[in-house]
Amino acid sequence: MSVQRLEQFRERIRQELDRTVDFWVKHSHDPEHGGFFTCLSRDGRVYDELKYVWLQGRQVWMYCRLYRTVPRFHTEEILEAAKAGGAFLRKHARVGGSSGLWKCAFCLTRDGRAVKIQRTIFSECFYVLGLDELSRVTGDRDMQVEAEQMMEKVVHWVQEDPSGLGRPQLPGDTPSSSMAVPMMLLCLVQQLSEGRGPPTALKYQRVGQWCVQQILMHLQRGGMAVLENVSVDGAELQGCQGRLQNPGHALEAGWFLLQYTSQWGLQDLQDTAIRSFIEGPFHSGWDPDHGGLFYFRDVDGHCPTQLEWSMKLWWPHCEALVAFLMAYAHTRRPELLECFTQVYDYTFKHFPDAQSGEWFGYLTQEGKVVLDFKGGPFKGFFHVPRCLLMCENMLDQILGRDQDQVPDQDQVKSQN
Amino acid sequence: MSVQRLEQFRERIRQELDRTVDFWVKHSHDPEHGGFFTCLSRDGRVYDELKYVWLQGRQVWMYCRLYRTVPRFHTEEILEAAKAGGAFLRKHARVGGSSGLWKCAFCLTRDGRAVKIQRTIFSECFYVLGLDELSRVTGDRDMQVEAEQMMEKVVHWVQEDPSGLGRPQLPGDTPSSSMAVPMMLLCLVQQLSEGRGPPTALKYQRVGQWCVQQILMHLQRGGMAVLENVSVDGAELQGCQGRLQNPGHALEAGWFLLQYTSQWGLQDLQDTAIRSFIEGPFHSGWDPDHGGLFYFRDVDGHCPTQLEWSMKLWWPHCEALVAFLMAYAHTRRPELLECFTQVYDYTFKHFPDAQSGEWFGYLTQEGKVVLDFKGGPFKGFFHVPRCLLMCENMLDQILGRDQDQVPDQDQVKSQN
Q1: Which residue, A199, B79, B147, B229, shows the most beta carbons closer than 10 Å to its own?
Q2: What angle separates helix B76-92 from helix B53-69, to the nearest 10 degrees?
Q3: Does A163 lie in the same domain as A232?
Q4: Structurally, how many domains does chain B consist of?
C-alpha cells in the first residue's frame, strides 16, 4: 500500500476527529446542571434530556484523554467541560441500592435524579473510567481514590460475590460468563495501572491476567469461533445464548488483547488475538452481499432472535478499524492493512454525515440510515472519537511521523 | 365490496388458521416435560428449548378457545396439549419472589426451572388467561380459583401497591402509566367475567371501568394521538418515553374498547375507539412508501430510539385486521372495510410462509423477511390464530352465515 494512501487515511481521520469534537462541544454541554446531553438529533438538537451514566463517564474520559494527549485539544473549553461532567457524576451517579452506596444509576434526569438502575457493573465501570482519567488531568488525588475504590467494588462483584448487584439467583439460570465483563475490566486495568507504582500495578496485574484468561475462554470450537456467552468453566452453553456471536465485540476484545501483549510481550497471545479475535470474526461477521459487519450472528447459522441482528452499527466498524491498524502495526502483515482498507471504505462511505458532522449510528443491512440521530441512549462521545484518535496516532507511528506532544508541565494540573 | 370478495377473505383466513394450528400441533409439543417449545425455526425445528411463560399461557388459552368454540378443533389432541400446558404452568410458573409465591417466571428451562423473572405483571396475566380458559374446558374449579386469586394479586399490584413486583422506587422515575397495563387487565376482565354471576361479574365490572378510563387517558393532543406512556394523572411525559407511539398497540386497544362497548352499549366510546384508536393510529402508523405498519413512531416526528422502529411486525397487522373488521361489523361503514382490505393485502402478501406454513414475524421496512423463525421469545401461538379465528367468526357474521357450534354437552368436561 502506498504511503500516499496512508496519508489520505490519516488526513481524513484527523478531519473527522475535529468535526466530531466540534459537534459534541457545541451541542452536548448542559451549562445549567453540568454533565452532558447525549440524545442529540442529526443536527445536534437535544431530543431527550435524560443523562445516561455510561455516556457521561465515557465523555469525561474521552475529553480528558484528548486534552491530556493531543495539543490541538488541550483547551480550556474541553477541560472545563470534562470537569463539569466529572462533578455531575460525583454528585449524582452513586445512588446506593442493596450494597450500600456503591451502585450507580443507569440514567439520571437532567438535574441528576436517578431514573433507572441496571443490575450489572457497567455504569460503575464507566464511572471509574471517567474519574480516573479526569484525576490524571486535574491531579485530584481524592478523585483517583474514588475511582480505585469503585474498581475494588466492581472486582468484588465480579470475582467474589455478585449479590450486591441485586440479581436474584434462580435455579434455571446457569451461571455464565459474558465476554463484556472481562473486556470491561481489562480496559479498566489498563486505565488504572498506567504509570502507577508497584503495589497498585501488582494488584491490577493479577486482575488483568484473570481478564485475559476469561476472554480466552470465549474462544470455542477449536479456536474457530468467539462466543459471547460461555459457562463459568468455559464450556458452551445451550440455546441462543450459547450460540450468540457479536463480531464487533470480538474485534474489540482482539485489540484489547493486542494492547495487553504490547505491555507484557506475549507472542502466542498476539497470534491468537489477531487470528481468532480479529481475522476470524471479521471474515465470518462481514456481510458478503452488502458489506459491513453484522451486529449479531448465530454460530450454527440459525437466525438470531435479536430484531436488529442484521443491522450495521457504527461501533463494530470503529472497533474493526482500530483492531486491523493495531494488528498491522504489530506485525506489518500487508493483508491486515487490506482488511483495514475494506472496513475504512465501508465506514467512511456510510457513517459520516457530510451535512451536520459526526456519524450516523444505525444502518439497515443494505446500508441505509435508519436511525438518524447522532447521540442516543447507547451512542455518545466515545466510540467514534476513540477510534479516530487511536487510528490517527497509529498512522503517525506507521508513517514514522513524530506525534505532537502536550508539553509535560501542562499534563497534570493541580487543583489548587 | 362484493360478497365474493368477503367470501375469498373468509376462505383464505380459514385455510391459514388450519395451517397455523397444524404447525404448532406438529412442532411445539414437548411430550417429555409438558408445556410448549416456542422457539421454532422456519420449518418447525426447535432452536432453543427455553419455555417463555407469556407464550405458554397464551398457547393454553388459544388451544382451549379453539377447542371450546370451533367444531373442527374440538379434538382430543388439542385438549390434551392444552392440559399438558396448563399442568406445566401450574407446576412451574409460580416462583415466588419478594411477594410470597405469586410472582411468575418470565422464562423457564425445558424441565421447568426458573431462568428469569420480570418486574412486571405480564407473565402473571398470561398465566391467568390460560388457566381460566382451561378451567372452562375441563370444569376444573380449583384451577378457576387459582386464576381468580392471581388476578386479585395483579389488580393489587396495579391499583394499590406495586412493591411486590420488586422494582425500586427512584426519585427521578416519574410514576407513569403504560397503556399495556390497562389493556392487559381489560382483556382479563373480559376473560374472567364471561358467563359469571353477580358477585364476580360486579367485581370485574369495576376493574373494567377503571381500565377503560386508564386507556382513554392515553388519548392526547385533543384526541389526535394515542401515546404509549402518560403520567398517572393523564398528562404528557417528557422526552422519548412520552412521545412514543405504537400503532399496533393502539389498534389492539381500539378493538378491546369496541368489544367492551358491545357488552355495555356505549355509543360515544364506540365512536372514540374507532376514530381515535383505530383510524387515527392506522393512518399515522402506515408507511406511505412501502406499506405496512411501523412498529414505533415519535409523535413529534423525531427518530425513535428503538432500533427496530421501522420494521414491520406480524402482530400489529393482526390487530389491525381484527380492529377494522370489528369496526365494520359495528357500523357497516364501507371505508372501514376498505382499510381492512388494505391491511389484508399487505399482510397476506408478506407474512404467510407458503413453503412451511405459519407466518413470518419480522420484516424490514421494505418488506423483506429478516428473522425467518416462526416462534421466538415473543412470538408464539397467539396473535396469528387469535386474529384468524376472530376474523373468520366476524366474516361469518357479516356474511350472515351460521357459525358452526360445538355441541353444548361437550363444552364443559368434568375432570372426573
Answers
A1: B147
A2: 150
A3: no
A4: 1
pLDDT band at B413 (very low <50, low <70, confident <90, very high): very low
Separation between Cα atoms, residue B97 and residue B105, nearest integer Å: 9
User: Residue B240: closest CA among chain A residues belongs to which residue?
Assistant: A48
Does A115 share its domain with A187? no
| B307/A362 Cβ within 8 A | yes
Mark yes or no for CB contact B50/A309 under 8 Å: no
Instruction: Answer whether A172 sits within 8 Å of B114, measured CB to CB.
Output: yes
Asked if residue B43 lies in contact with residue B356, where contact means CB atoms within 8 angstroms, the answer is yes
Chain A from 216 to 255: CB within 8 A of any B CB = 238-240
> Which grid cell sits at A352?
459520516
Domain identity same for A288 and A362: yes
Q: B210: domain CATH number?
A: 1.50.10.10
Does A96 share its domain with A192?
no
Tens-digit pLDDT profile for residues A19-63: 999 999 999 999 999 999 999 999 999 999 999 999 999 999 999
For residue A390, give the C-alpha cell: 487511536
Backbone φ and ψ of A379, nearest 5°: -125, 115
Residues A116, A192: one domain?
A: no
Which run of H or of E encompasses B185?
helix B180-193
Q: Is A367 left (phi over 0), alpha (psi -120 to 50) or beta?
A: left
Residue-range definition of the domain harbouring residue B350: 176-374
Separation in Å, CA of A230 to nearest CA in chain B:
16
Q: Kindly state whether residue B409 falls inside one of the protein's structural domains.
A: no
- Residue ending a domain, among A146, A173, A200, is A173
**Matching residue, cell 419472589:** B97
* Contact across the interface for B49 and A372, Cβ inside 8 Å: no
Q: Are residues A22 and A111 in the same domain?
A: yes
When the pLDDT of each residue in chain A is averaged and rounded to a whole number, the result is 95
Cell of residue A81, nine digits: 467541560
Three-state secondary structure call for residue A320: helix
ipTM entry: 0.94
Give the number of beta-carbon pairs within 8 Å between A and B: 114
Distance CA A336, CA A338 (A): 5
Say yes or no: A126 and A96 in one domain.
Answer: yes
- In chain A, which residues have their Cβ closer than 8 Å to the Cβ of B239? 39, 47-50
pLDDT digits (tens, 9 = 90+) for B169-219: 899 998 999 999 999 999 999 999 999 888 888 999 999 999 999 999 999
- Nearest CB to B115; choose among A97, A172, A309: A172
DSSP letters for B5-38: HHHHHHHHHHHHHHHHHHHHHHHSB-TTT-SB--
Give chain B's mean pLDDT. 95
| DSSP class per residue in A187-239 | HHHHHHHTT--HHHHHHHHHHHHHHHHHHHTTEETTTTEE-SEEETTSPBPSH
According to DSSP, the residues that pair with B29 across neighbouring strands are B36
* Chosen domain end from A152, A173, A194: A173
**A394 within a domain of the structure (yes/no):** no
Regarding whether A285 and A157 lie in a shared domain, the answer is no
| B29 within a domain of the structure (yes/no) | no
Residue A323 contacts residue A335 (beta carbons within 8 Å) = no
Q: Is residue A402 part of a domain?
A: no
